[in-house]
Amino acid sequence: MFGNLFEEDEEEGVSSASPKGRVAKGGDEPPLPRGRSNLCGIKNQGGTCYLNSLLQTLLFTPEFREELFSLGPEEIGCLGDRDKPDSKVRVIPLQLQRLFASLLLVDQQSASTADLTDSFGWNSSEGTNQHDVQELNRILFSALEHSLVGTGGSTFIQRLYHGTIANSIVCKECGNISQRQEDFLDLTVCVCGVSSLEEALWNMFVEEEMFEGNNLYRCAQCDRLVTAAKSAKLQKLPPFLTMSLLRFSFDFAKCERYKETGRYSFPLTINLRPFCEQTKGDDSDYFYELFSVIIHKGGCYGGHYHVYIRDIDQLGHWEPSEEDCKPKTQKKVKLEVKEACEPKLQADDPLSVLAAIISQESSKSVLVDQLGQKLMDKIGSSWNKKFRKHYGPIGKFLHSHNDVFILVSNGTRVALKADPPSSVTEPPVPREQTNNADSSAASEPEPFEQHAGPDQRPEPVKEQGSHWFDLNDSTVTPIRESDIEKQFQGKESAYMLFYRKTQLHRPGEALNNPQYKVPSHLVQLAQEENIKLQQMRDKFEATNNTVQLRLHLAPSYRLENGALQPANKGLNESTALSFDRRKTVGDLRLTIYQMQEFWEGDMALTVARNLPAGLHLYNTLIDDSVSLYSAGIYTNSDLFVWNGKEVCGATILTGAEWEPVLLTVVRPFLGDDGAKETGDVVAGEDEGGALENGGPGLKSESRGFAGGATLGEVKEALGEPKESVLCQKRGQQGAEEGGGASGWRVFPPDDMHRTLKELSLKDGDALLVLEPQSFDSSVFTLNGDVVTVTTPSDCRWLQVEFRPHEGGGGKGEKQEERRKIKVPATGNMLLCEVKQRAIEELQLQEEPGAPYCLRQVDCTGKLLPPVCEELSIREAGVRLMTTLTLCPGNAPKASQLFLHFSVGTAPSAGMEMGIILERACSVKECLKSMLESVGLDGTCWHLRRLDWCEEVGEPLMDEDASLSELKIISGETLVITEGHLPPKGFLKLSVWLYLDPKITETYLNCVESRNTDEQLEGAVTADGMSHSPNLCGNGTELISVGQVEISDEATLEELKSQVLTLPALQNVCVPTTAFLRVWQLEGQRLARILRGQQVTLRKLKLTSGTDVCVQQLLKEEDLGPKEVLLHVKMGVPGERSYYPPEELVWDASRDSSPRSLRTYVAAHYGLSPDSLLLAKHQPDKHIWEEISNWSQQVSKKKKKKKAESLLGAPLHIKDGDTIGIKNLLIDNNRNFITLQDEQGQQRLREQAEQHKKRDRAAPSDAAGLQKKAGQPKTRKPEVALSINVGVFR
Asked: Where is there biased composition of kind Basic and acidic residues (predicted)?
């Protein structure tokens, strides 16, 4: 019922009552005038759509409306006298009269029901509560009847809506008829199991209910129980018949309400003669025609009401939609043209999507409550799903983009700021209302005249007769009769039907006359209200259409660097001007002439824009008859006032193609003095300021150039010789990549004839200008078309720390042995040069047998692999001004890798060994080299990688693959593991033994006889077996017996054979593997039985690390895919216990219904299926779920009842489930719960109570976090609907 119920929560949207969202200037915006339909809607107070729909239905019931208007002040009083003592003012009828007069006569888009609901005695919160429209219909009519007691209108509700039903019971023995009359206001008809209204009425008033068998009727005349027939007939038909459809039902199985959404048809005209007691009258006495359909959209706990109404008095202006007026071929052509011409909508940009939605509306505005639905229709996804995570609620998004959107109509509608809805986009006022409008109103602006012209939108021909409209709160939309059929079914479907007798004819003077029979004092009030509204609109339009312009006068500017610059630097040369944008360009020109008394010659007005390079001119306003609104002039627009040719003798190039670009021109610099004269000095590309020691560097200055100028013209403007070279920055390559130089790309000769726009140069881009002699210095290096610039600031340093021991840093190391020195370095310097300089300054001697290498250090102080000394600092990724460690050891070459390795287990920090290998080295050669370095031999070894948690992981399976092919990088750690390389696709499975007391007693005795006093006690038994608690729930136990490694291509039979080879199972004797059952464990519980002796483990979806359990059987077993193993146990009659469980294999391949299981269990015990009661045990909850037949809901599309399956929801019966059985022939106790179950439930309750106590003791912020975690919102309590009426008896 809320306008945005299906979009967002109320606090997340835009509150229609909040004035903060408005950005219009004119204060409170007046109500919008009526739309093209000439009908008035009703505002929604938050949850009053049910009230709005019923009020519109009563308004368009002419007989009800005229009966209400016939009550004069002498009968019901005046609202001005209600505060007087002893005055009996009937407020509800008076407010209803005023509301109806406002809906008929006042020129506004929607009326308010606030005064009416105040007369009901409702408070502000009542307007947001949801209620049923049928309940309101009865309560409102009752309140009107009580309010009109003692007046001439006290019986008009009774005359118009009340009918009579005759209920009869006929005795089949003596023929005696017992009859009772029943008055009705509306007929409540069934929807469930019925396909149409006629069928429901037939069941109510034609079909007879028989009293027979055990349900006999006591006849007063026969004085005994007899067979009888009960029936009902319509005895008296009212002029207006109201039908309420029972859409809402209650599911007693689920204990919840639900809505009937199936197809339910109803006719536009209905003959009630078959359902009446008297059938001798004329046909016109029994024929009714439909004139109102109240529709409910949503579910049984919330939704929205709107109404389809037939305009009997033809008060509205009905017209078909534009698409309906065009032939099919024209529609197809228009669609193809639209797809070809319209740019592709940027569905990921909410700004463009919302702007497109609003711009496509005829009124250029959208109700805020409907914006979310229109967004979903446009892109197929809601705001919350697509944009909320990144942009927040849609209301906040509109507020944050107030430069694009404007909220109008007191914040209820949103429009584009550059095109807000005003009188220029509204349809003309209806002709009935223009007579009441103020004749002195301002003339419409020119855009409206164009909109209303014959070339823009021809007035459609109105079809004759009354038509249908959809009144949805404030919105009124014309519809066709065929649209009613769409409300036969679905979540949005008909809820109440209103019929009127076809013999009720309207007088000719009532047609197209909204003032018909409206009291004169109400007509006068409406006329005064219209005059007031028109004055408010005129005032608002004048204020809201005022724009602030900035005028720039040509004498105050000069052309410099491709753009207009102020003649006086630092001064604001613009003049502010407030102007009505509905006026024309000629009016603006005249105003400026009057402001500039000394202006001579022609005056041109050109739209300007401030860019980083300066002021640039675009299009010139030529047509003086065009309004500023049509010319695209909005507030804060810049206008340049000049002669249209030149400024201070310089020709001005206008248009987007000549937009100036502000470039940073960089040149070589040889001294500090020049920097002060020519511009800023740059050190490299990431530092500014003076250069060190006055050495050579770069200087930069900002220059603007026209975007349409070629690169050759730019060179000429800079005054450079033709031999000069222009370069563009390649990218930021500073210290981030470990170097100090920067690269520039030389423009090829062909680019000299291309413009700056074509070269994609933009504001802020750098342009390096070099003369040929510049390459003679060490600063600039040319390599192909790339110029490398190395400035003195790029010559930085590296710190080298000497550690005499490779794993140094220990406590025993002497401080003087860890010496540090700084080595001057550049990004192009080789690391071997850095090492050589460090050795020289540290006065070390590098002997052939004791070399040194450079290593980086991470943030924890751990030494990283040695760096390749053949690379430069930049190529090796070493950052300048960081520390390298000089350690004993070899450095890898460019074709080599440095790897860490250990033997047996994952190495601890600093304990791994290192080795240098070729990248092309194979895994087998790598393993051989590592074994030789640690002094091991043999072939029973293989290599494994470390996984992400620094533990021994997967082996390197392909021994012939190279290290580079396996993507092994320098610094990676490998582990040498003992044992042969496992085959590909191997699985490591943990094996458990299922101990069944029936067959494993001998096995345990054998195991215990082998135990000695020296063996460990407790959880670990002989052969490494460990006991597990009772995990099966049937008094059995699981024992761990070891692990097996097996290929995933092995079959289940091969797995059983390998499991039997485990030492712990040497005493388990089975004839064949078919006497073994294999379970898969999940969470240390038996989950499923592995089926199929020849099925591979891969097809059984077993993965490495899976736990399996083997169970010894007394007979062979080969279960099919739909055979379920169950533990069944029969209840002990008269006791709360069961006999020992038995295994039962139930074949559910053909039938998995409850009846099939009951029949199977009955055959097993030799009992009748009807005498058995079954239930499934839930060991986690200590409860039993009874297994009984249930009826599933019929599918709407297939119209076929789904099969009942115990393998699916809600029971999900699977292998190992326990089924309890009650024989009702000898056991009257239908309760399956045992004493153990009650004790388990008590433990669960105690645990829950402890959790509650901990939650209450937790701080309040924890509760807030739980609330944010997504707890479901509680529904508001349902409040009874009531209307307070005074006493008038």
From this structure: 448-465, 1246-1258
b/e per residue 463-472 (b: at least 16 CB within 10 A):
eeebbbbbbb
- Measure Cα distances from 64 to 161, 453, 542 in Å: 10, 40, 42
Tokens 């003339």 belong to 443
CA distance 363 to 33: 12
Phi, then psi, of 286 in degrees rounded to 5: -115, -5
Nearest to 707 by CA among 650, 758, 750: 758
Query: Among the residues of 668-756, which ranges form H helices?
Result: 672-678, 711-717
8 A C-beta contact, residue 770 and residue 724: yes
Helices (H) and strands (E) in the chain, counts: 28, 60
What does the buried/exposed string (b/e) look like for 694-724 if buried means 16 or more CB atoms within 10 Å of the residue's CB?
Answer: eebbbbbeebbbbbbbbbebbbeebebeeee
Question: Which listed residue (40, 49, 727, 853) is catalytic?
Answer: 49
Are 53 and 501 in contact by the 8 Å Cβ rule? The answer is: no
Secondary structure of residue 1257 in the 3-state scheme: helix
Angle (nearest 5°) at CA 472 between 460 and 331: 35
Amino acid at site 1087: A
Question: Distance of alpha carbon 292 from its chain centroid, rounded?
Answer: 36
pLDDT of residue 984: 67
**Region at 1134 (left for phi over 0; alpha for psi -120 to 50; beta for the rest):** left
Q: b/e string for 881-898 if b means 16 or more Cβ within 10 A?
A: eeebbbbebebbeeebbb
Q: Long-range contacts: 929-938, Cβ < 8 Å, 24+? A: 930/901, 930/974, 930/976, 931/976, 934/903, 934/976, 936/903, 936/976
Q: Report residue 470 as tokens.
A: 């959809």
pLDDT at 244 over 60: yes
Q: What is the largest CA-CA distance in the chain?
A: 135
Residue 189 pairs in a beta bridge with 245
Nearest to 692 by CA among 792, 606, 837: 792
- Cβ count within 10 A of residue 20: 10
Residue (of 671, 662, 677, 723) closest to 698 by Cα position = 671
For residues 477 and 37, is the Cβ–Cβ distance under 8 A?
A: yes
Q: Name the one residue in this structure whose structure tokens are 């049509």.
A: 630
**Residue 304 among the catalytic residues:** yes
Contact 317, 298 (CB under 8 A): no
Secondary structure in 3-state letters for 917-941: EECCCEHHHHHHHHHHHHCCCCCCE
Taking only the tens place, the pLDDT of each residue in 814-853 is 444 678 888 888 878 889 999 988 888 888 877 766 788 9
Instruction: Tabulate helix, strand, coil % of the chain (nearest 5).
Output: 25, 30, 45
Residue keyed to tokens 């204020």 = 543
Query: Which residue in 219, 276, 296, 304 is the catalytic one?
Result: 304
CA distance between the termini of the chain: 37
Residue 1239 DSSP one-character state: H
> Can you list the alpha helix ranges (DSSP code H) found in 679-765?
711-717
Q: Residue 147: which H helix or E strand, with range?
A: helix 133-147
The answer to whether the beta carbons of residues 185 and 141 sit under 8 Å apart is yes
Q: Are 1215 and 1125 in contact (CB under 8 A)?
A: yes
For 513, 667, 725, 880, the CA distances from 96, given in Å and listed in that order, are: 20, 84, 86, 85
- pTM exceeds 0.70: no
Q: Are 613 and 663 in contact (CB under 8 A)?
A: no
Tell me the pLDDT tens digit for each residue of 150-172: 888 889 999 999 999 999 999 99
Task: Quote the CA–CA distance of 375 and 379 in Å, as a whole number.
Answer: 6
Distance between CA atoms of 460 and 392, rounded to whole angstroms? 43
406 and 413 Cβ atoms separated by less than 8 Å: no
